[in-house]
Amino acid sequence: MSDTPDGTVVVRIGEVEAYKGSDDPASHAFRGRTDRNGSMFEAPGTLYVYRSYGVHWCANVAAGPAGTGWGILFRGGEVSDGKSLAQRRRGRLDGLTNGPGKLTQALGIVGDDNGTDLLAPESTIRLEPGPGPELVMATPRIGISKGTERPWRFVAATGLTPAG
DNA sequence: ACTAAGATTACCT
DNA sequence: GGTAATCTTAGTA
User: Fold this and answer.
1) Can you list the alpha helix ranges (DSSP code H) found in A91-152?
2) Which of A19, A74, A76, A125 has its CA 20 to 30 A from that of A155?
3) What is the dihedral of CA A79, A85, A87, A90, to 10 degrees?
């Protein structure tokens, strides 16, 4: 209910995927640093934004020591504040953050935001700590053809396991 | 220089 | 279930 008046969208991230740089054939950083993936090689906390399928923006955070190219892709979450702004950005009322491109659009992140320090208090785009999930489910990552044997997609859950 | 393949989404039948 | 949209990198010539 408490939409922030200054136009802020807050999302509780509930689904991520890990990409381990040169050790991970599914990673954009597997073959080393390029113009596109450079920010993933910066200090941990640096935002890496890439154009997906030539159409959507997807957002990651550099998550390893500088130079490693390790990163975390934000895939989904729940809007906890600023829902009306997220709806306006998405152009619809539902399905606001259930996918990497959708989540990024709901947060208003675009290519120009690539390289932002998500841990700096003055950044307009920030990553902040919050209460952890009750349960984390690990599954293979979505939409990749290599490295599928690694269960590096992590989904927040509560209550009982899928098996019951 | 040219072609193929993507860490996806929305809209069509 | 199928497909268009259309940017970047890698592989081939």
Assistant:
1) 100-106
2) A125
3) -100
Q: How much is the pLDDT for A7?
A: 84
Cα A109 from Cα A124, distance rounded (Å): 10
CA neighbor of A128 nearest in space, from A70, A65, A77? A77
Q: How far is the CA of A153 from the C1' of C3 (A)?
A: 27
- For the CA of A80 and the C1' of C13, the distance in angstroms is 53
Handedness of CA A87, A55, A60, A7 (dihedral sign): negative
Measured CA to C1', the nucleotide nearest A40 is B7
pLDDT of A118 reads 98
Helix %, strand %, coil % for chain A, to 5? Answer: 15, 30, 55
Total length of chain A = 164
- Of A5-14, A85-94, A141-150, least confident by mean pLDDT is A5-14
Which pLDDT does position A106 carry in this prediction?
A: 98
One DSSP character per residue, A55-99 reads TEEEEEEE-SSTTS-EEEEEEEEEEEE-HHHHHHHHTSSS-SSSS
